[in-house]
UniProtKB/TrEMBL annotation:
Protein name stated in the entry: EGF-like domain-containing protein
Keywords on record: Calcium, Disulfide bond, EGF-like domain, Extracellular matrix, Glycoprotein, Membrane, Repeat, Secreted, Signal, Transmembrane, Transmembrane helix
Entry keyword Calcium: yes
Subcellular location(s) per record: Membrane; Secreted, Extracellular space, Extracellular matrix
Organism listed in the record: Helobdella robusta
Length: 762
């Protein structure tokens, strides 16, 4: 909708646009009810007035600290200038966008987060709808009759598709007191990925002046004047272009430019990254060659036993041992010289057919009936009459697979259904066997009898969950009023994922709002920041044996690792990642798993703990894989899918996929322990529990009364660590910085990002 449609007055009157909405959240621990908030903006004069009503006595001296609300109104509806080409922020953003403002008050530790969500134009009232949420701590001071903010200049810069950022300082004066604040603001809006970029609108400057704050009995008013400018390029627009170093700038006739990523790179020109032709299978390497990705290109190298340029490979002629040396012909075959191919090869004897290495009776031969030749059947097979074929054939016994002449014992890896309902499949040497679940006894296949001693419903372990500013603890028992407690509360925090270190019971979690990883003791005391200066940390996993933390960052699209104290940060993956979410580790087997909920290619991947041997585990029939959990005994990786509303599992290799629960709602976090699954459901606002076998049943586990907000991550606070170890458990495996266990039972040492390879190994 155009601006003119928002106002029906004649052009001789000031063009007035109203924003209507509400303000809620917490300030200094006090809950704010939905206060009515609105602003009146005069575009023809650049005059903006913001009103917040129903302000009570307890928060009267706190609301003036929300003076950073004035910046977005100035950007949207500041007085347009010739330098801005008569363009205001509303022309760029429209009426649907989100603003996140983080305010750090100087000379104090107070920190405030303001989130404004503009949801569109109300057709009937002809105004813009907006919801404001504030959370954090602000200085408390007596403002008296009024206060004012020093004139402020704010520069907004485009940092990517649909994203503007600014950083500026403001000072508030009330009587003899002055408070300084540093403000970081980010605007996210819908922008067409394929629009032609116009450099004239990549940077804006907003000038705010005459900013005053007038508190009344039950309301607060901000008034200000605003102007908006653009920074149009002069002469050659590419001189000040924002193109990525791996792109080229192309000026156009309109005085603007376009950024195009160089060949071998992909992106929108502002951001370009290497195209991994090998990973995406867009290379032209020969089928008998290896593809090696290079920065901006790739190479093809013929595999061992082949020669060529990689795009054309031929087998290296070598002397091949024939059946004369190998003596590998079937008992009904013989090794004869073939003059056509000029070599010896196996040929079936008369009356038999096949390739010589495996020979069957011909149908017309009188010895085809196995009843007349019982010796042709395998010792684990029987000669039975086949009514369909109207003859006797060799048939493997029920616990074996094969054609009757060769039979191998079935295992639960390829036939999971052979295990008892109260058993699971585990690797034993080079084979797979069925083992009864804890509390049961039997052969694992035909019977598992309950012998007691273990609760089949998962026992009474404690669960730790993340809920925005809160971390909570609840029992794994079904819902009851006194089922849990709050462990910690941090104003302005957004706790997303949580995990515990079973070795000392410390809790670790990601804080997306403060862009860091935090930790505390099991009771919530001694909260400290472990890793900071992140972008948007989400998933977290603790390797309790090696003493490492793994996490995903959806802001930088990276997977990183550090020691438990936050030292020695190392980036494992920064390419071919779109929206990394959950992460999980199996330190005994040296494996790392993570989910990527890319809208176009959702997937679950794995690698070794050091980032080598990356491979896909699940790529099909996924929606929004949010949570991950590992069944360490059975070697299954399981996930919660909010798009498909399912809980599913598959083996570490991606085989034998099964659905645990069909109706999981909008599942986010996921945990597994003692044959039980626990997940957070945004639709039910509770933690949900179900058995891994009897998946049709589920129970709600209540959270403490009075809590609000979405439930994010959940984990089991195990009373003891799983059995198992790895070479990194003793003195970091002899490594100087980072030790990673490997799948083969060994270990690798690695260097952190901030230390060169040369310094690392000196």
């Amino acid at each position: 909708m155009a601006i003119s449609e928002l106002n029906s007055r004649q052009s001789t009157h000031p063009l007035k646009i109203t924003i209507m909405g509400s303000l809620q959240g917490t300030l200094n621990g006090q809950n704010l009810r939905k206060n009515k908030a609105y602003s009146v903006n005069h575009i023809n004069t650049g005059r903006n007035v913001i009103n917040i009503n129903s302000v009570n006595k307890q928060t009267k001296n706190l609301f003036p600290m929300l003076f950073s609300l004035t910046s977005i109104t100035g950007f949207l509806f500041g007085l347009p200038t010739k330098d801005s080409l008569d363009v205001i922020g509303f022309n760029l953003l429209g009426a649907q966008f989100e603003v996140t403002t983080n305010v750090q008050f100087s000379e104090s530790r107070h920190f405030l987060t303001i989130k404004q969500k503009f949801t569109g134009i109300k057709e009937k009232e002809k105004n813009i709808a907006c919801e404001i949420e504030v959370n954090g701590e602000v200085p408390d001071m007596n403002f008296g009759s009024n206060a004012f903010v020093k004139p402020t200049e704010i520069e907004y810069k485009s940092v990517g598709l649909g994203k503007l950022k600014s950083r500026y300082t403001q000072s508030l004066t009330a009587g003899p007191n002055t408070i300084m604040a540093t403000v970081d603001e980010e605007i996210e809006f819908m922008e067409c990925e394929y629009h032609q970029f116009d450099a004239r609108f990549s940077e804006f400057k907003v000038a705010l002046s005459k900013i005053s704050i007038l508190p009344t009995a039950q309301a607060l008013r901000f008034t200000l004047n605003s102007q908006i400018f653009t920074k149009a390029p002069r002469e050659d627009p590419c001189k000040s272009a924002l193109c990525h170093p791996l792109s080229t700038c192309q000026p156009d006739d309109a005085g603007s430019y376009r950024c195009l990523c160089r060949p071998g790179y992909q992106g929108n020109g502002w951001n370009c990254e290497d195209v991994d032709e090998c990973y995406e299978r867009t290379h032209d390497c020969h089928a008998d060659a290896h593809c090696i990705n290079r920065e901006g290109s790739y190479e093809c190298s013929c595999a061992d036993g082949f020669h060529g340029d990689g795009r054309s490979c031929e087998a290296v002629q070598q002397r091949v041992e024939t059946c004369r040396e190998l003596r590998n012909c079937h008992e009904f075959g013989e090794c004869l010289y073939d003059h056509h191919y000029n070599r010896y090869q196996c040929v079936c004897k008369p009356g038999f057919r096949g390739d010589g290495y495996h020979c069957d009776y011909e149908s017309h031969h009188h010895d085809y009936d196995c009843s007349a030749n019982p010796g042709v059947c395998h010792h684990e097979a029987r000669c039975n009459f086949d009514h369909n074929m109207r003859r006797y054939t060799c048939q493997c016994l029920p616990d074996f697979d094969g054609d009757g002449r060769a039979c191998v014992k079935k295992n639960c890896n390829s036939h999971p259904e052979i295990c008892s309902v109260d058993a699971h499949c585990v690797r034993q040497g080079y084979d797979f066997v069925c083992v009864c679940n804890p509390g049961f006894h039997g052969d694992g296949m035909h019977s598992c009898t309950y012998i007691g001693g273990v609760e089949t419903s998962g026992g009474d372990e404690k669960l730790v969950y993340a809920q925005g500013m809160f971390l909570g603890e609840i029992s794994s028992k079904p819902y009851h009023k006194e089922s849990g407690k709050y462990i910690s509360y941090t104003p302005g925090q957004l706790a997303v994922a949580v995990d515990t270190n079973c070795a000392n019971h410390d809790i670790y979690w990601t804080d997306a709002s403060h862009r860091c990883i935090k930790s505390s003791r099991a009771d919530g005391s001694n909260v400290k920041t472990v890793v900071d200066h992140l972008s948007s940390p989400e998933g977290i996993a603790i390797d309790w044996i090696s003493g490492n933390i793994y996490w995903t960052d959806s802001g930088t699209d990276m997977i990183q690792v550090s020691k438990l104290d936050g030292s020695n940060v190392k980036t494992l993956f920064s390419q071919n990642i779109t929206n990394p979410r959950a992460i999980a580790v199996d330190p005994m087997r040296g494996l790392l798993f993570w989910s990527d909920w890319s809208r176009t290619f959702p997937r679950i991947e794995r690698s070794n703990l050091d980032g080598t041997e990356r491979k896909m585990v699940v790529t099909d029939n996924l929606g929004l894989p949010n949570g991950l959990a590992l069944d360490l005994d059975s070697q299954f990786v399981c996930w919660s899918d909010a798009g498909k509303k399912k809980i599913e599992c598959t083996t570490y290799e991606g085989r034998n996929r099964r659905v645990v629960h069909q109706d999981a709602g909008y599942a986010f976090g996921l945990a597994y322990h003692s044959n039980m699954f626990y997940w957070t459901d945004w639709e039910r606002a509770n933690v949900v529990k179900t058995a891994s076998k009897h998946s049709s049943l589920k129970e709600d586990i209540g959270i403490p009364q009075g809590s609000s907000g979405k439930l994010y991550g959940v984990t089991v606070a195990k009373s003891s660590c799983p059995h198992g170890t790895n070479p990194c458990s003793y003195k970091d495996g002899g490594c100087r910085y980072l030790c990673f266990a490997s799948l083969t039972g060994g270990r690798t040492c690695a260097c952190p990002d901030n230390i060169s390879e040369e310094d690392c190994h000196n």
